[in-house]
Each structure stands twice: as C-alpha cells, then as structure tokens.
Amino acid sequence: MTAQRLRIAIQSKGRLSDGSLALLERTGLKFRRGRDNLLMRVEDMPIDVLFVRDDDIAHFVADGACELGFVGLDTLSEDGLDQPGRGVEVVRPLGFGHCALKIAVPNGMAYAGAGDLAGARIATSFPNLLQRFLDANGVAATVVEMSGSVEVAPRLHVAQAICDLVSTGATLEANGLKAVETVFESEVVLVRATRELDPDVAAVRDRFLRRIDGVVATKGAKYIMLNAPKDALPAITELLPGAGSPTIMPLAGRSDAVAVHAVCQESVFWETLERLKAAGASAILVLPIEKMML
Ligand code: PRP
Ligand code: ZN
C-alpha cells in the first residue's frame, strides 16, 4: 500500500483561489498545476492539494475527504461548521480574503435603521447569517435564497434589499446599491479535521502548519538594524514596533554606541524611523523578512 498523503482543499476558482495558491507557493512546496487539474501533487512532501468549490471545503474536511482546508469564515459560519463537535476546527486566520457580508438597498431608498427592513424581501446566498442578524435586531423580513448574482435581485423585483459579500464595493456601485448594515466580517481561515489522523499524516500536517505559521508570521514583519548611543538605548528600544527583545551588539572602536537588531512584527512607517532618528539612532536599515521559524 502506498503511503498516505495529507490532503488540503482550496477554492478552485473565485475570490479566494489566487490568494490561497500564492500562500501555498510561499510555503515552498514544489508543485505543478495543469490547466484543468482538480488535484495537484506536491513533489517533495506527501501532500495533495484539491481544488473544490468553496462551499465544499469545510465539509470535505469534516467528512474525512481532506485533513486541511483554506476557507472563508463566512462560508464556514453560514454552514454552522464553526460550531464545536462538527469535525472541523479553525487553526488560524490566514491574513487574506477580507470582506464583509452586508445588507444593501437601492441608492434612492431612504434608510434610517434595521427597522426599515421590516416586511422587506432580502435576497442572499447566506440565509443563516442573515436570519441570525434579523433575529438579533428583532426584524421580521423575508429571506429570499439565491445561489449567486444576488446584486440583480432588486432590479428584477425579486427583493427590495440584498445581503451579499462586499470587498471593494464595486459590485454594489455598479448595481446602484448602497451598503446599510454589516452582518458578518470575514477572512480566509485555515481549518483542520478534529478526527485523529494516521501518525505519518499527522506529522506531515504539523510540518505544513509550521511552514504556514512562518509565512503568515512574516507578513508585514521587518528586520531593523540601527546604531544607538548607549544612553539612548531604552528610549530607542521602546520605539521599535512589536520587537520583543532586540539584539544589542558592540560597535568596533566605539564605547559610547551599540548596534541594535530587531524583528518588528508590526509595520514600520517613516514616522517610526523619524522618531528613532530624533531619539539618537543612526544608520537605520529596514529589511524585508522572507521566512521565519519561531
Ligand atoms: C462576491 C459578491 C459580489 C462581489 C463583491 O462574489 O457576491 O458579487 O464578490 O466584491 P466587490 O465588492 O469587490 O465588488 P464572488 O466573487 O464571491 O462570486 P459569486 O458572487 O459568484 O459567488
Ligand atoms: Zn457575487
């Protein structure tokens, strides 16, 4: 029998697929994808990547077809798979695919608050999340379920309002709609199966998770190097954004100054550099970080 492989489900095509593939590429896995492939074999680790519809990803993980998945929190939550005991567990947010599920109405419609939705028909592909919002706000409205192209519902007189994902807002604008309520904030998360895995597969999974951690942790992280007068050291280390404990090293031929190296987990802005300089730092270098293992 051939060795078992770890299976990871990602979206085949749509908003999340480019980001999912880009993230996988940054983990350093070697793979080739043909044009119509449903499955991609990783060459240097026993991992298969399955390209599936986003609605199926979490269910595949829960039902045993896959061990890991990259899925929108919106879909996970709509299907109730974010609840305990459903066979799926969120490991971590992946830092991309941010969007919000919003209620939108035609631009010309007056809107003062959720109460204005009473008696309305609202078209959506997320009936559960919408119903939860309506219940929480004590609004009695009719949820009209559509599998896609929700934004055309008002023009078709199928509904007076819609509840759909908004990322740039371009779709709403193109359809003469304005967002009036935020129902759910979403981003892509990594989910894992809660069932016990074959020890070899579990080991591959843990190795993959460490790589994902390394990739996600480096997002926005920078390596800062600077020279600091010894007496300004406390003020300067205080200014380093999200740095933990920096490395302090002697500078050849200087007894009054030291070199400071630090990994900053937060964005380093020009303002930060200006403040460091004002505090006495010099020769400040900010370098990108490619990989990290903590
Ligand atoms: C979502 C949503 C809107 C669009 C919003 O669709 O349903 O159509 O993205 O994005 P925007 O605010 O940047 O315009 P998605 O791409 O998930 O495809 P689908 O509607 O076919 O599911
Ligand atoms: Zn859409």
Which ligands accompany this protein?
1-O-pyrophosphono-5-O-phosphono-alpha-D-ribofuranose, zinc ion
Major sheet attributes: 6 strands, mixed
Secondary-structure element order, as H and E? EHEEHEHEEEHEEHEEHEHEEHE
> Which radius of gyration do the C-alpha atoms yield?
25 Å
Number of helices: 8
The CATH superfamily of the largest domain turns out to be Periplasmic binding protein-like II
Spatial separation of the terminal alpha carbons: 36 Å
Q: What's the mean pLDDT score?
A: 93
User: In percent, how helical is the residue content?
Assistant: 25-40%
Percentage of residues in DSSP E strands:
25-35%
CATH topology of the largest domain: D-Maltodextrin-Binding Protein, domain 2
> How many domains would you count in the coordinates?
3
For the record, the CATH architecture of the largest domain stands as: 3-Layer(aba) Sandwich
By helix and strand content, what is the structural category?
Answer: alpha/beta
Which features does this protein show?
single chain; 294 residues; alpha/beta; D-Maltodextrin-Binding Protein, domain 2; Alpha-Beta Plaits; 3 domains; six-stranded mixed sheet; five-stranded mixed sheet; 8 helices; 15 strands; binds 1-O-pyrophosphono-5-O-phosphono-alpha-D-ribofuranose; binds zinc ion
List the helices and strands and how they pair.
Layout (H helix, E strand, L loop, with lengths): L5 E6 L5 H10 L12 E3 L5 E6 L1 H10 L4 E5 H6 L9 E6 L5 E8 L14 E4 L2 H10 L5 E4 L15 E6 L3 H5 L2 E10 L1 E6 L5 H20 L3 E8 L3 H7 L7 E5 L2 E11 L5 H9 L3 E7 L6
Parallel strand pairs: 1-3, 1-4, 7-8, 7-9
Antiparallel strand pairs: 2-3, 4-11, 5-11, 6-9, 6-10, 12-14, 12-15, 13-14
The site of 1-O-pyrophosphono-5-O-phosphono-alpha-D-ribofuranose has 12 residues, from strand 9 and helix 5.
